[in-house]
Amino acid sequence: MRKFTITLIFLLASFSIYANNLFNHYFEDKTLRINYLHIGNKNQENIIFADFIVRKGWFGTRSELIDPYHYGDILIEVFDNITDKLIFSRSYSCLFTEYRTTERGKTEIAKMEECVNIPLPRQTFKIRISSYDRKRIATILKDTTLNPSTITFKYAKKDHKVRRLHLGNSPKKAIDILIIPDGYSKNNKLLLKYDLKRFASYIMKCSPYKELRKHVNIRAIVGYSEQSGITQPQNNFFVNTLLNCTYNTIDLDRYLMCPGVWNLHDIADDAPYDAIIIICNSDKYGGGGIYNFYCTVYNHGDYPDYVIVHEMGHLIGGLADEYYTSEVSVQDFYPEGVEPTEANLTTLVNFESKWKNKIDSNTIIPTPEVGKEHPDYNKVGLYEGGGYVAKGVYRPSLHCTMNSIVYNDFCPVCKETLEKIIKYYSK
Ligand SMILES: [Zn+2]
Description:
Blueprint: H1 2-26, E1 27-41, E2 44-56, E3 74-80, E4 86-92, H2 95-100, E5 110-121, E6 125-132, E7 138-146, E8 154-155, E9 161-166, E10 175-182, H3 189-204, E11 216-222, H4 261-268, E12 275-280, E13 287-290, E14 294-298, H5 304-317, E15 383-386, E16 389-395, H6 412-424
Parallel strand pairs: 2-8, 10-11, 10-12, 12-14
Antiparallel strand pairs: 1-2, 1-5, 3-4, 3-6, 6-7, 9-11, 13-14, 15-16
């Protein structure tokens, strides 16, 4: 047994050295952020590069440079120019994809800011950006070759104080969560201090984050806005803030998002980050979260503890909304005959790839809803209704933080997905 343990430790150490050597062969210990515009509507889309920003350090995983999950709608692939070998990939979802499924998105052209962080390649590289529609059909939006020695780079500047709220492992061995405040003026200094602590504790008291304390870092940017509050266009309330976050995104009253993605990342560059959470100084219920993009949460009211961990479910786990009764403006988000990418929904097209093996043999399928007094509250089954529709889409559990307004109540499937991804950042 002892010999086996020593052999295993030796193998793991060897793999770690190999992975690090491979990283060093292709990349510098720097991050290249490519800013671009995502332009179009339901029928057309395009990407136009804008800026190349370099900063010291690569804070993501070095042993799994190829994205093993591909939960997002956009896939970034980096290839070595000489061998054509895929050396890095990353996937994320974006507001543009949601916009395309709205009524306005059928005809009106939108222009949205996006960006991606990649480790800076040492040599000339190819980069391909593909967009996957709701039927998972890919369109290549950009396929180009870039030479780091001829690119005109901008360099990230340090402008803000960074506060450490929870420290686990080093940034290379943990998911680095960065909180950025919006709508806090200098008159709100004490409130900001209080809120940063409060929201960090909402995260760390929720499963699975609390069990994975060493795999999580939480830092915050101490950044103030010119004015207090958050813009609500539908109420004719406009304020000048650090991030210019706004309600009524894609015409949804409670959908609170940040249109200035480049500015957001300029500010985020002051700290290591894998995931960005924006805390908005507002008493109007709202939030939003998109996989590997960013998430937002309001600060005053009854449910910000629930909203932050729910939106982080989208941001970090790529989890879907399990509810189907609330106001949404997206249409045909889960088309018939296509298995959703999200781990917590199925259309039964490929249920084997989801949670089928977690259902007891004595559980009825589809599982009937028997009300809130269900004796097996969090038991995994196959419940019809989820992803904004009542029929044809199924969820794993009667209740879950991705479904109802309950803090710290992720169903076993959502919890396991979050655990897997948090650990992925720690490799
Ligand atoms: Zn769930």
